[in-house]
């Protein structure tokens, strides 16, 4: 359990308690008063949270929601962590969540077995870590402050870090007799890990380089009478195809407006606005669409992209995931009672073979919607395709340089995943910066010469 994945942790329960306006210390007592727990599923906490919102909106009682949360934590743990492993008869429950009597009760009810809670249950992990540290350090001098530190007085100050859009609430703990305060609460390690500062200084941030190449010569221009088209900063329309669409629309006389970078506020809004459960990246797209609405663009471009470009010599099917294909309809459903729904542009495009089919799809759409001639659209498409190809070529060229010259004595890792997750720092909890701080070089997957690998026969 850690702060990256909230599954089953006390921090998730604490957040939900706060949301339901109860103290975490009252959680267990209130949950045990419920007649019937709400069914909040057994999936990860992101989904639990959206189920909780839906039940709350439909008027389910607070105590049922809270006991439902306790059960969901248990079902999720048994399904995802225990999996097919056998559950024995002697069950030992440790960790801070053990403070919550309703979770213990739910475990007993679901397993039908007694649960043993050890003394010092909330620090068993720390005790284990201390034993391992003692074995590793083997009598060498350490920075251990001694047990008497627990008797020292301390003061806690809170402040909001404004260094990036996350605006984390940081707690600074000043302990009597110590010069430097301790920090916690940040989503990155800006304050917390003093010894790591300065590490990773010579490691290039290839993800920032990729973003710069993706944006190319794009700058947000001031209103000048041209129609504005909003492009959400998410999924493949931005993280994979932005060079194409920025060139295409600019060429056809549109002014392009991007939604804000993903941030905590935008994520919270997305979770409130989404109508149905989706994966996180699609959920967050709702926030980007609403952000563009507040920016007042004339249109919001949400193409349903069925498949992706394939090389003729490597003609894999390249279908996009159903969520990517259908997200635009979810966004439209969310806005059905809103005038703004008219702003959404939802064409269906097949990029598998750029050629006749795509030419027809895009030119017909632009003619129908904006009365733009086929010749003009095709000219813009050609230019857009050149920019996109150039972008992809630059990624590979930079990748070749990086692979040829990997930093000696340091680790390098390729971050595998969808570009809209691996390149959005807020979506991946600043993974790239964290690795760089550890003196590790993270490499975007599309820096590798992937097109050289023919997977047609395997696919
Ligand atoms: S993520 Fe780091 S830099 Fe950004 S607000 Fe939080 S602590 Fe500050
Ligand atoms: S492939 Fe992407 S869009 Fe599809 S479910 Fe996974 S993260 Fe979501």
Output the keywords.
single chain; 459 residues; alpha/beta; Nucleotidyltransferase, domain 5; 4-stranded parallel beta sheet; 16 helices; 13 strands; disordered N terminus; binds iron/sulfur cluster
Explain what this protein looks like in three dimensions:
There is one protein chain. With 459 residues, the protein is an alpha/beta fold. The protein has helices at residues 10-19, 27-32, 45-57, 62-82, 101-111, 124-137, 206-215, 235-239, 242-251, 264-273, 280-294, 322-334, 356-370, 374-404, 419-422, 431-437, and strands at residues 91-92, 115-116, 154-160, 169-175, 182-184, 228-231, 255-258, 299-301, 304-307, 344-345, 348-350, 412-415, 441-444. α4 (62-82) packs across α5 (101-111) and α13 packs across α14 (374-404). It is globular and about 75 Å long. 28% of the residues are buried. The model is unreliable at 1-7 (pLDDT under 50). One iron/sulfur cluster binds next to α11 and α12.
Provide a concise account of the structure shown:
The chain is an alpha/beta fold and 459 residues long. It contains 16 helices and 13 strands. This is ATPase BadF/BadG/BcrA/BcrD type domain-containing protein.
Query: What compounds are bound to the protein?
Result: iron/sulfur cluster
Q: What radius of gyration results from the CA coordinates?
A: 26 Å
Strand order of the largest sheet: 7-6-8-10
Oligomer: single chain
* Share of residues in helices: 40-55%
Number of E-state strands: 13
Biggest β-sheet strands, sense, barrel: 4 strands, parallel
Domain DUF2229: 228-447
Protein name: ATPase BadF/BadG/BcrA/BcrD type domain-containing protein
InterPro entries: ATPase_BadF, ATPase_NBD, CoA_activase_DUF2229, Dehydratase_Activator_Redct
Pfam family, one: BcrAD_BadFG
